[in-house]
Amino acid sequence: MKLSVIVITKNEAGHIGACLDSVAFADEIIVVDSGSTDATCDLARQHGARVIVTEDWPGFGPQKNRALDLVTGDWVLSIDADERVTPELALSIQAVLQAPDADAYRIARLSTFCGRWIRHSGWWPDYVVRLFRRDAGRFTGATVHERVQVRGRTDTLEGHFLHYPYASLEVFIDKINRYSTEAARGAFEQGRRTSLLGPFGHAAWTFIRHYLLRRGFLDGWQGLVLAGMAATGSFYRYVKLYHLGRTR
Length: 248
Prior knowledge:
alpha/beta; 2 domains; nine-stranded mixed sheet; two-stranded antiparallel sheet; globular
């Protein structure tokens, strides 16, 4: 079975080399870039990827579908630039493609934050469907938090991704701001609205869910920060949704 890897990028020079090294076993690597101003595209080409640059940014789901439309393999592995395939996962992928018994496979992600591998807080095992038959999967059109919609049976692979999502707290805060804007816009376009008290209620519940119900307190001070950041993101999202409802 021929395996194609797809990656979407923008200014990922610090990650793309290690990411593509971890999937060097693939038959084809396609990188769809949305206008990087650093060395991302050059580095991707140096690591054997076919690079396509788009002039616009339609959102995560549509951009990944653009990459999906370019593959020629029977199977597709979707990976983000800040993720790595571990040797154990690579062997698992290669083994299952010899005799696949499902149409798609979910894979766990182990993420790091401020020097600690996070094993609670809702961050582990964080299963994501990333390996699928080309003709059996398609990404949702969501601008953020996209996922693969599968036609057929889904199973779970042994092994996991290593995930390096935030180079610094500044990057994390900036991402919360950007993602909350896109999430609020998407919710508004779907007809959702909220009250003035909505952001406060959602933020409080998000903190309780992450820190207590998902045992974020077992992740040390990083777990407390993550719960606070998640609550902040929820607050931003619903404040922006409320503002859209008031101004439009």
